[in-house]
Amino acid sequence: MNTVYLDCSTGVSGDMLLSALSHALEEWRGPGRGFAHLEGELARLGLDGFGLEWTEKRIAGIRTMHVDVLQTREQPLRHYTDLCRIIGESGLGGRAGARAIEALRLLGEAEAKVHGVDLEQVHFHEIGAVDTLADICGSMILLDALEADRVVCSPVDLGSGFVDCAHGRMPVPAPACAELAKGLATFGSDCSMERATPTGLAILRTVAEGFGPLPLGTLLGVGYGSGGRSSDEQPTYVRAMVLAKVSE
Question: Can you spell out the DSSP letters for 171-233?
Answer without folding.
Answer: ESSPHHHHHHTTTS-EE--SSSSB-B-HHHHHHHHHH--EESSPPSSEEEEEEEEE-TT--SS
